């Protein structure tokens, strides 16, 4: 190679690396930068002036030989909520499909469940082989997009999942074709998700995901919806302690508290907790809470006065109870509010909770046969708190 | 999106490589050389893109590995080049050095990503970071020592700037699971040859077993 060619290639090299360098310097560049902050939804009212409200529904009917699991719920247009879950003969079976149903907030009724996605449909949309479907989460962004993130498997089981998404701009009536997320450098193995995200400024959102390929740990997916799809970045959340299925609680404009399913095999496990003050770029060490844990999904949400409401299996052993717990100090100490379900030998698991307008909407797996929907408000929480005292 | 279409090129190149390698092992006469140069790329189009059971072979391959890196493109193009142009793009020594680089980089990246190292390298690949600087210096070094690998290293960043791959992470442009595995196989094969030479004082009988075609 002669000298002039070397000089030419060297200049070309500098110019090529200048592109990402300059992109990073652009004010408001996409990424875990300083410009992002958490958008806290406006609280309509606190418990004052409300009368206690509590209601229970079943989203679907039990069908012989069909299990259903891992529900999530999100508001949609037209004063409705969309609940999604997966159902099939067993977990990670090839006949598992993702189902959805709408809850009419005025009529207080659930529509008949519809199949939102099958492995065959996902395969057709992606133009890739999809043999099985898994966890799915519905989530609203700040610009009217309703996102459906779901796990799918080409081969193997839960440790070979990868994540995909669809988006709806009409409240879940129609959906975009599926798109794949590339989140791992080794054959895209293996990411999964359970809980909802946090809405950020600039139309962005944070989605908590987790890894189960070699070690179990949690990650944060920072998403920027755009016209040509979703731009995303992945960061580790917590790499210690087999902490998975993070549930994020916003604390101010850039603070986060995360609670984790404890993925260890210890007989006396506790739900784990970590905090971040810089929107998830750095995290505190992992600390166990005082909440017992059987190794199951749980959900957390924030209340009007900064308290945290948790929905957990309050047990070291099994998923036979589902309990509301409350913390007023950021998750350091907890009190039990109410046991929603308790039947030895049965399963009540994988809760998912949102606050929409004045009410909390909680969905969970009910005896693996149905998805149950529970609605309550803060006044009801305050009333049961008063009764417990 | 350009990345969706670009990703379909790699399976075509891979199928070409597999066909040329098989023919080299099995073919009988040298006279077929030019014939195959045109026939194999032509047949590979059909094999790569015609749908079988709803998906093409390309799409099945992309189902297993959705993001073939620019390193993989470089490796396969380097292997394919002599079959079509009758000369090497990279020498055997270059390919071995490239395989060592892929192996080391992949192991560090995977160890970091899968929680075997404390520091997360993968997360720094979305934006300009120290990893970019190291890659730029290595590329500059390869340019000035006349190493042809500099072309692949330049291709990493050029492709990243153009957004040719599905992944938005720069490190996914450098390596992937497929490249890691073929690099391990190549280095294993080279080690076997060296070991054979050391024990027997001569090279082992190599493929093609029959007459060399290309």
List the helices and strands and how they pair.
The complex is a heterodimer of chains A (389) and B (214).
Chain A lengths: L2 H23 L28 E5 L8 E10 L3 E9 L8 E8 L4 E2 L3 E4 L1 H8 L5 E9 L5 E8 L7 E8 L10 E2 L10 E3 L4 E2 L5 E7 L5 E10 L2 E10 L4 E9 L3 E8 L6 E8 L10 E7 L5 E4 L5 E5 L8 E7 L7 E8 L5 E9 L2 E8 L3 E8 H11 L1
Antiparallel strand pairs in A: 1-26, 2-3, 3-4, 4-5, 4-6, 7-8, 8-9, 9-10, 11-13, 12-13, 13-14, 14-15, 16-17, 17-18, 18-19, 20-21, 21-22, 22-23, 24-25, 25-26
Chain B lengths: L1 H5 L2 H18 L6 H17 L1 E2 L2 E2 H8 L5 H16 L6 H22 L16 H15 L4 H14 L8 H4 L2 H24 L14
Antiparallel strand pairs in B: 1-2
Organism (chain A): Desulfobacca acetoxidans
Protein name (chain A): Sialidase domain-containing protein
InterPro entries (chain A): Sialidase, Sialidase_sf
Characterization of this structure:
In chain A, strands 2, 3, 4, 5 and 6 form a 5-stranded antiparallel sheet that branches. Chain A has a domain at 294-388. Chain A has 3 helices and 26 strands. In chain A, 48% of the residues are buried. Chain A has helices spanning 3-25, 119-126, 378-388; strands spanning 54-58, 67-76, 80-88, 97-104, 109-110, 114-117, 132-140, 146-153, 161-168, 179-180, 191-193, 198-199, 205-211, 217-226, 229-238, 243-251, 255-262, 269-276, 287-293, 299-302, 308-312, 321-327, 335-342, 348-356, 359-366, 370-377. Chain A is globular, with a radius of gyration of 22 Å. Chain A is mainly beta. Chain B has helices at residues 2-6, 9-26, 33-49, 57-64, 70-85, 92-113, 130-144, 149-162, 171-174, 177-200; strands at 51-52, 55-56. Residues 208-214 of chain B have low confidence and may be disordered. Chain B has a domain at 1-64. Chain B has a two-stranded antiparallel ribbon. Chain B is mainly alpha-helical and 214 residues long. Chain B is built from 10 helices and 2 strands. Chains A and B meet through helix 1 and strand 15 of A and helix 4, helix 6, helix 7 and helix 8 of B. Chain B: Keywords: Membrane, Transmembrane, Transmembrane helix. Chain B: The chain crosses the membrane at residues 6-26, 38-62, 97-114, 126-144, 151-171, 177-196. Chain A: This is Sialidase domain-containing protein. Chain A: Residues 80-361 form the Sialidase domain.
